[in-house]
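Hi there,

I know you've been waiting on this one. I reran it after we fixed the sequence typo, so this is the corrected version. Both the input and the resulting structure follow.
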Amino acid sequence: MEALSQSLQPYKELVGNVAAGVTVLQMFSGAFVCNDIRRKGTSDGFSPMPFIGGIALTLLFFQHALLMNDPAMIRANVIGLGISVVYAVFFYLYTPRQSKGAFWKQTGISGAVVAVLLGYAQIENPDVVEDRFGFIVTILMLLLIGQPLFGLPEIIRKKSTEGLPFPMILSGTVVGSLWLLYGIILNNVFMILQNLVAVSLSGVQLALFVIYPSKDSQKKKQ
């Protein structure tokens, strides 16, 4: 792996800038999900976690980028934070009154976790904080990416992928592949592992769109 990293070093800046640029473009994929919510007139059937979690993760990735002193990652996450906030506000505006409490509950939990982890990054030993913080962020990122799979039994029962954010999953696969390459260039174990698993999880979700339609088959029968 180290030999491959060395051979790719001349392309480090190029790959980092491309990955950052594509990451910003990928963040706009949430607009397609927002448009589906707008057309439906409600956020019922859609999980707020891709948006709430997006805010939390961009804050954590920004902190990790600061620890790594990586300009490409810093720029990408600053822009990503702003976009994620816009999506979360949009989702909230289309959330039925009876579901707003659940939205704020998830927001509060995510905010508390972020606050604790950012505090930890400030007090941890500088010699180990980058690796340990990176490991924690990796676990949280994989949980967010894999979150739609928790609804797999319901997807199989309905034989439908309706509600899964296809544009975000597809673009996330592309972005994960680019950051995986960048991680190899940096020879950063956490970046390699997190993006390798992320691409794998996204691939599983993309396979569901091949197997099942995006509309509820039970509704079609009615």
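Quick highlight: Residues 216-222 have pLDDT under 50 and may be disordered.

Best,
R. S.
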